[in-house]
Amino acid sequence: MTMNYCGNALSKSQLKVTDTYSSVLSDLLRQFVRREMQRGISCKCDVYVFKAFDRFLKETCAPENNLTKEIVHAFCTRNSDESEKTYANRVSAIRRFGRFMQEVGFDVYVFPTKAEAEPPRTLHRDITGYTSALRAHLRQFVEQKRGLGAKYTFEPYILSAFDRFLTGHSIPPDSLSKELVEEFCAKRPDEAHATFVLRGKVIRQFGIYMAQIGYESFVLPRYHKCQSSFVPHIYSHAEVERYFEALDAWNYAQFKPYSRYVYPMIFRVLYGCGLRLSEATGLRVCDVDLKNGVFKLLNTKFNSERLVPMSDSLLRECRNYFNAIHSTGQFELFFPSYVADRISQSTIQSFHKQILIKVGIPENARVHDFRHTFAVHSLNQWVTQGMDIYVCLPVLSKYIGHTGPSSTERYLRLTAEVFPEVTQTFEQYFGRVIPEEVNFEED
Q1: pLDDT, tens only, 197-256
Q2: Residue extents of the structural domains in the chain
Q3: Cα angle vertex 91, ends 90, 97, to 5°?
Q4: Among 221, 271, 323, 371, which residue has the fewest nearby CB atoms (within 10 Å)?
């Protein structure tokens, strides 16, 4: 399967629009449009944005071969009756033109992205807003957790809710009663079991902390996670082939620039290496070794990092992809986005649903199921080749970023269900190693 890099040519009327440019930057505007077209990037909206920009430059008597901050911001100011999409397209076109001018040697101002314009966002929820009688202990507890290396990014939201709950009660500053803990941690109507368990876990840990520093505190008993009946969708080889054929033939004209490259490539990485979607969208260009064919994954789930080799065919695709959009070095992320600091996972998932409908794959098949499919297809191939399953499992476990082989053993049963012909091989050579019960939680 090869990636489709065909471009979207402008119509004759749209080409004539570029001939009307007559400002001091008209030649550079036309050069930029031609370059984008050669790269296969649609400029059907950009030519009209640049027509307005060209007219604006003449009206403001802009200096030759220069873009000042004042001029760029004046043109990019949002109109009161302008839609979000129209405004975003206008800003994106001017930002990319500014980068083009920098590439060809001009010292110009480039309109910043939202991530560049805003101050760096903290990864942790602010903990100075606690107001209950236990506010000091809550702050110290979070600081201790983070000081020990825990991210503790979501848990403070639970503690903030607990703090608000305590504020409505008259309690002493140095104790935590059983009645209050059980009232706050009680399961709520229509609440997911996982949410219920997580809330209890955080409050239990806070109770342990209070007891350890010498205060009277009730420690909530440990909750047990329930077994999930969820079974992921394992894509058949025929489904995978139909999926990527549709992906390559998709009409990307209505998408953002470079989408025709990003979407086919990111799904190939997900299926070809079994990455989590968050790991793929967070890949930086410097994390991709195209000489040796290795992805370097940092700060992944469980605060771990790993090296993920890719197949020769995937390496060829990655090199083609790199040459298509990274030759100028303007992007930090391997899968760039024009509207955010990284491509949105919800955007990927929404596009995935459209492909499923197009090719007739069940709509409950998730993006994350490509990860499960990679594991099952790998195990099936190894078993078919007669390889030792006890040797393979630790390798697969490390490759996909599990904490240990026990987390990967669940794929044995799923592999046997998808490929019944391997069950006899499992039992004949490796004994009854297939787990009777499997819990396929998000990994």
Answers
A1: 889 999 999 999 999 999 999 999 886 555 556 788 999 999 999 999 999 999 887 777
A2: 12-111, 135-217, 237-359, 369-430
A3: 95
A4: 221
Bridge partners (DSSP) of residue 309 are 294
Please tell me the number of Cα atoms within 13 Å of 6 on its side-chain side: 9
Going from the C-alpha of 364 to that of each of 122, 206, 279, the distances in angstroms are 35, 38, 22
8 A C-beta contact, residue 202 and residue 166 = no
Helix axes 312-325, 259-273, angle to 10 degrees: 160
- CB proximity list for 282: less than 8 A, separation 6 or greater: 333, 342
What residue spans of 186-236 are helical by DSSP H? 193-212
Which tokens sit at 377?
């297809």
Return the CATH number of the domain spanning residue range 237-359. Answer: 1.10.443.10
Query: Please, is 48 exposed, middle or buried when counting C-beta atoms within 10 Å of its C-beta (0-12, 13-18, 19+)?
Result: middle
Mean pLDDT to the nearest integer, 83-106: 85
Place of tokens 């950009």: 46
Q: What is the pLDDT of residues 81-93, one digit of tens each?
A: 888 878 888 888 8
